[in-house]
């Protein structure tokens, strides 16, 4: 065990390392924040809608147009309780959709989807995205307050144009919008899986987009990467070292302290970037947000425990050991749950799930193997005659329970 003097000499190194790592993490979060402030250039193509759309969609003089994603353009006009929307997008075959969400996520949103059949017939339907499976996408269901004005889908050159009106009791302001397209025709009005998708926050009151989709996606990606590296990899490794390598004294202590401090800075960066995402998208995911903050509080208590560590011979040392070990386990368990919740909320693809599943599996297998080896070592030492039990104090360094 490291004595007080050696700890006094080395703790400034831990602080310096933590500061350097914080600088790295804050650079990542700052990158997300700066890039998120970029807005799309407000230039739209000069399309003559009078040539292929009937009233009330012909009068474009009062409509505001904003590029929203790739070459997608969103035109809209709010007059009293009526909101007129025209979405223009590149099109060859398949379908194009625009969804309206409460929290920027697909599940629970309502979408207008348009396509042209193989025989040249135009179709546009409202879909309710109740879940992620195709069977959970319900046709002619949803929460969009469509009025009785004809909804239109038309092609002009290599573009498709979807026009519809909403009868709003409260006009849109900042509204999370989903954009997606698929390359296959809907079969019996069942949508094929999208080829690509995005989410933006569109400000209907200002006539401009919020953070453009690519920047929001990058921020969300950075948030996930920091969470998996910090909470899913670094902190569990530090906990494993503290539990199973105490016989390597004092090396285990320094490794544990350094690794956990680095993991803490990654965890802190994860929460900071998550709060930035919340402020920009107003995403309502109370469980994910609350568990993330709770795990951060537990990790802060763990850092304080490092600096408030009592002497080895202190009477309160056993209470400190209990507090430090169990609070650490709680933080790791809640963090693992929250990573899964975050991937579900973000609609993460299979690569994210497989990647985190692999990391989580390695950590679990390593802990099980080391626990079995520690148990066998304790059993072997207990079976030896008293005269052959060397260094009983050293034997106590193996874990004796969870």
From TrEMBL:
Keywords: Electron transport, Membrane, Signal, Transmembrane, Transmembrane helix, Transport. It comes from the Eukaryota. Residues 185-379 form the Cytochrome b561 domain. Residues 1-40 form the signal peptide. One of its GO terms (cellular component) is membrane. Pfam families: Cytochrom_B561 (PF03188), DOMON (PF03351). Residues 70-182 form the DOMON domain. This is Cytochrome b561 and DOMON domain-containing protein.
